[in-house]
Amino acid sequence: MRKISNVSILAILIILLGACSKPPDERVEQPDASGASMTDSTEENDAENQSSESDTKTEKGKQNRTEDFDIEEYLNENYQIENTHYQTDSWENEDTGRTNYTVNILPETKEYSQEIDNMFRNGYKKVYKETEAISETAKQIMDELPKINPKIHIDSINWVSTDRDFSVTLIQDYENSDSNSGKKEKTNTLSQYSAAQIEYARVWLQLGPNQELDELNVWHMKAGKPLNPDDETSAVYPEDVIQLAGSRLVDGSVTYSGNGDGTINVYNVPLRWDGKYPAGKEFYTDIIKNTKLVYVDPGDDEKIIKLIKLLNIHE
Fold first, then answer.
1. pLDDT, tens digit, for every residue of 243-299?
2. Which phi and psi (to 5°) does residue 294 adopt?
3. How far apart (Å, rounded) are the C-alpha atoms in residues 175 and 179?
4. Which of 50, 67, 178, 226 is deepest in the core (most CB within 10 A)?
5. pTM
6. Sign of the C-alpha dihedral, residues 274, 211, 294, 311?
7. Under a CB-based contact definition with an 8 Å cutoff, are residues 239 and 124 in contact?
8. How far is residue 22's CA from residue 163's CA, in Å, rounded to a whole number?
């Protein structure tokens, strides 16, 4: 009996020693109250922590992206136009938290500036691929940049010559502009008037020499009509034009054609021609070549309505 007891004791010791010598990863996991093992729970916690850290890093990245965003550098890198570069003016709006930008596209050389200036001036006669490409890029910037950085608002994008004596507003987001914040809210009172009436009033409000009028006359002149009917050497208008004028010579006049995109071509012609005639066809041809492209500002509704009520449209 004693011999058997010793053998039994020896067997028990061997079993105990074997259990203690098992590697940690072979030990049986004890489930927690939910039935999941402690190892599974740890792995889930680690995954959650990593996800939280990743979200935090992403949020910080977005914040830094907004705060450190260099718009001029971004434009010059991502919206390159050959022989040009971008410059911007900006202002902050505390109410919206947005930074508003006026984006100017400037030519690198005076020679290139003159080339593109002439194309814009003559755009009503011919479509140029160079100016079309510049305008298309402006539209892309206006559409895409606020999506890239929601704290940015592009108020307008302009072509500006090297000497800054010529500029063209390529696109403007006037409706959503923060530059109007603080002004009284506009009501939709213009809806009762036609687009043509509103256009005449806006053009005069912006370009008319005298705003204190008794009436605002409107004449439509067809393409082919002489600039100066009293001069046989006069060149003719290459397109339909509109002439606005007050009832007196002192009121001045504005002669223009519309482009259908918020811009007009302004002809530098007087209401009454004074001088020595015949002036020669070249004199009038130069006037046509040097029309000025102007963006028409929507203006103040009350002033627009006041001018509309003075309209006298001649058929």
1. 999 988 889 999 999 988 889 999 999 888 877 778 888 999 999 999 999 989 888
2. -130, 135
3. 10
4. 178
5. 0.45
6. negative
7. yes
8. 86
